[in-house]
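Per reviewer request, we include the raw input and output of the structure prediction for the construct analysed in the revised manuscript.
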Amino acid sequence: MVIGKIWKKVVGGRVTPPGELETFLFLVEAKMASETPAQAVGNVPPEPSPAKRKRLKECFEYGNRIAAQENFDYAADVYTECVVGEPGNALYVQAFLSNLKKKFNNNKRGQTLGFFKLAPLKAALRKAVHSKDWVNVFRIGAEALKINPWDTGVLTALSQACEQCGYHEAQLVYLKQALDANPKDVEMCRRCARTLAELKLYDQAIAMWHKVEQLKPNDPEAPKAIADLTVRKTIEVGGYDETGESRRRIEAAGGEVRTPDALSRRERLELEIKRQPTNLPLYYELAEIYVRDGEYGRAEQLMAKAYEITKDVAAKEKLEDLQLRRLRQALAEAEKEYRSNPSDQTKQKMVAAQKALWAKELEVYKDRVERFPNNLAFRFELGVRYQLNEMYEEAIKQYQIAQTDPRRKGVCLLNLGQCFEKIGQHRLAMKHFEDAVQEISDRDAENKKRALYSAAVLAYRLKDYRRAEQHASALAAMDYSYRNVGELLDKIAKRLEAQRRGAPAEEEAVEVELPPGQDEE
């Protein structure tokens, strides 16, 4: 009787005292709970009964009326009953959040000092999420949002509950509200993109993945997702089967239409490239699949075709990277074969593979320096390739430019020293080795040791034994096991002793370590 009397006032639009409205809401909730046909299964809210759904609809309409009168607090209470009673109804969730944004004048922070009120609610919310009690997640989350509707932790919990219950439309509303609070949240963009894809809103999902790419360049998931969604959009929306034939034509002929899921990822990409020959992300993903299957040649042919069609520099660089990967793989196999079966034949095969890789790397980095002359990283890599190919004067030019990059200055000085030594400029070489010792940080221990060793050996060759002893001793203090530094110190000691006695000593050769990949046989 009581609920009926109050309901007549509510439906009639008459204002009710605050206490009477609270009584009404409590009774409505109790009535709806009594009409629920079954308890929540697995902590998932049960489907509302027709009677409950009707009452929620009436409650929602009442909430709209009082929200229009800018009575936002009462409207929030009414909408809460709707959101908790039918949490999968995106219309209810949208109205609930829209009302709260108006209540707080879209200030993006909710109540003043709301943190203190939110803390116990968020603790209870975390507990409910942990126990997968989605019914209470929706109830506690709604109360928390009334304090701060932009709290991303609460919104994330509610979106997770929606995902687990299959409420994807409501999930999307919560995720968009979280993005409104923090538009640069990459993980939230990612979740939003996945939900849009689940709802088959392909264009919006692709746009959201592009946003992920902008916020996090080189993200590995984004280009794959874009390519996948592009394929799905074409196949599912365009009405094609796996072979690219029209569904209508196949059905008219009495044939069977296969769904996109019947295709392998590789087949779907091959099909989509035929339809979108200028879409580079499709080529990139398919090329990676070919490489994973060991089909390097096919991957290179694919990217050569992509570059021919698009004339995009990115496609050319991808092709070059694939060629280098193939050559590195060939070198790794040749080295493995030589280690397991050392012979002149396997050694020649390994050396040939090494030279083929160095020659290709030289070609690639020459091309990249021509395209990007101000890129000091490319200058350094080109210098290394010139040096590996014994083109020392060309290497010196590149290192001298690249050393203006403070991150590589020490290594550039070291490599310059090695190049000057190779062309007979020993004094210049020694200066660069000693400059490298000073420039290279102790944290870069490996290059520091290489610089000290190179300086010690060259000083020994120049018969400057005191200087050689200084550098060799510094190296021994760092790592006495490094190469033959102990033997070198013994030789230096013999030379110094011979000088002290004025007696000649027999010349002994000492090898200098070359840059990585150049160790002398």
